[in-house]
Amino acid sequence: MFNDNQRIGLGFCVFGAFFCFLAVLMLFDRGFLVIGNFLFICGVPLILGLQKTAKFFFKRSKVVGTTCFFLGILLILVRWPFIGFMVEVFGALNLFGPFASMALMVLRNAPYVGPFFRLPIFKSVEAGMKTFAKTTDSAFDIL
Hints:
mainly alpha, 7 helices, disordered C terminus, Got1, Vesicle transport protein Got1/SFT2-like
């Protein structure tokens, strides 16, 4: 299913998300955010490959998400972790938003956590994500 590089990249992305989660728990600790972002940015090319990663991040339709994502990382590096994290989350939602509903659907069918993800709160979150995706796509069609 996965080759060795993809497994390593998946591990990097998981640990990157974990470090970002720890950073939020520790009130936006800059060090954890930097480590999490570094691991995530190293993991994505290992999973997708360099050409597919470049195509994904630099598509014309994803230019706003890519700009916000990398601007957020830059703001974190210049010691504005809260604002940088918020800008980065906005960019990540623009970039990876379409995958979120698919991931939620997979989690609903998972054996142990499925009933939890079938609760009405997650249905409203999914509807909000779809509305957000529609508004951001239509707002930036000019680019």
